[in-house]
Design brief:
Number of strands: 9
Strand order of the largest sheet: 3-2-1-4-5-7-8
Strand content: 15-25%
Structural class: alpha/beta
Radius of gyration: 19 Å
Helix content: 25-40%
């Protein structure tokens, strides 16, 4: 199995896989993140462009399975055309919360969603549009802020991986096409649009990033710009 991504979610999955007795053929991380592997004795590739390393992935693979976990790089044709079975675990319910998970969580609160979760799906040529294998849901309460939902979302991602590793390894997974009903997409345009929503009654709750503020600098910057813009408008004669 090949793993592409970064952070604790990725390494938890790698450790779970090795403990379950499955081979880890290669772990691909962003350039500069080699130290995160610690003392693990696994093949490691650090690169700024995983798509350019498609041939390396094909050579390394022993079972044709690729997992994308906390991976911010969109996988393109060089990787998609190698015949892999590629799976992503998305922090959000698909198709409602497509795009950047951090943006989707902000808008889930602003939109009044009462449910969030994580989705295990196949990767295809679209963005978060592949067939779904499994979903983990949890309620959003009136007191849950960004940090609460992100933390529960990450736990749901880990649970999905651990619950589905064996079925995927054994070829027993049964992906189902995504519904198009209620689809939403939250990308960088959604971050820029936050400046128009500072008056929303749940804006503070939706943008209280807590420990995740340094993790998502683009979102933090968009929130800061929105608040500064709102203050400037309020101070104008």
């Amino acid at each position: 199995m090949i793993f592409i991504g970064a952070g604790a979610l990725l390494w938890r999955a790698v450790d779970f896989t090795t403990a379950a007795g499955h081979p880890v053929d290669l772990v691909v991380v962003p350039a500069g993140q080699e130290p995160a592997a610690g003392q693990r004795q696994i093949p490691l590739l650090a690169t700024a462009d995983v798509n350019a390393a498609a041939d390396r992935l094909r050579t390394a693979s022993t079972d044709g399975i690729v997992f994308s976990l906390n991976n911010t790089t969109v996988l393109r044709e060089p990787v998609l055309d190698k015949g892999f079975r590629i799976y992503n675990i998305h922090n959000g319910l698909l198709p409602r919360h497509r795009g950047l998970p951090e943006a989707a969580i902000v808008y889930a609160i602003l939109n009044g969603d009462n449910t969030y979760g994580a989705t295990l799906h196949e990767i295809d040529a679209g963005i978060d549009t592949g067939a779904v294998l499994d979903v983990e849901r949890f309620p959003i309460t009136a007191t849950d802020g960004f940090q609460d939902i992100m933390m529960q979302g990450l736990r749901s991602c880990a649970l999905l991986f651990e619950r589905n590793l064996e079925p995927i390894a054994a070829g027993r997974a049964t992906p189902q096409p995504q519904s198009t009903e209620g689809a939403g997409y939250y990308g960088r345009n959604a971050l820029r649009a936050l400046r128009e929503l500072t008056g929303h009654p749940d804006f503070a709750r939706a943008t209280a990033l807590g420990v995740f503020a340094p993790v998502y600098p683009e979102l933090s910057g968009a929130i800061r710009d929105s608040q500064l813009g709102s203050a400037t408008f309020a101070d104008s004669p």
